[in-house]
Amino acid sequence: MRGAIAGVMANDRKAASRRRWLVFGGHGLAGLLLTAAFAVAALPALASAGQCGADPSRPRNQCVLAALLEEASGGRDTLSLSVAGGARQLEAEDTLSIAVTLPAGSHYLYIAHISADGSVTPIESGARYAGGSSVRFGDGTPGKGSFYVGPPFGPDMVIAVASERPLTVEAPGTAQTLEAFLPRLDAGLRRAGRVRAASVFFTTYSGRQQ
Known about the structure:
Blueprint: E1 8-10, E2 19-20, E3 34-35, E4 38-39, H1 60-73, E5 80-83, E6 89-91, E7 98-101, E8 107-114, E9 119-129, E10 134-137, E11 147-149, E12 154-163, E13 176-177, H2 178-191, E14 195-205
Parallel strand pairs: 6-14
Antiparallel strand pairs: 1-2, 1-11, 3-4, 5-7, 7-10, 8-9, 8-12, 9-13, 12-14
């Protein structure tokens, strides 16, 4: 394993013994990616919709991921997702809470954090929730962990997918690069039936911003 933690540190207390999310180094899309059974050539065009706004520091892969989820939702009512109460700038040791409200109807829920170095860490994968359920992660809710901001710092994002069938991408506790994750997610979305999805961009810093 390489790198520090995947943008969040998970444990029930801030201590030297805190458990860290698995990390792998990542790198961005260099032009068009091709993998067996998946051509990423169509994905970069999705990012032109402006999901990254005017932020030149946002990795292109993150823009593509947001666009892929938007397309998968097909313009239907999406689930509600917020990170840290809607904050867009977080500093080291800040609590990284994640709140999700699911749309009507029973859904399987998938949540992942994408860190500035391109590593993807699943937070929830495959649990089924009733329609309209509100779920929180990372704020100390029993069974949902406590997450704190840590290195690598920079542009991060969190995604959430509510699907008719389980989204088979990987199991919680495993890590992979966003580059490898994109084709697996695309294939998983195609198998998942009706999908509602959302993504949130935010930026983490090592110290307080003026």
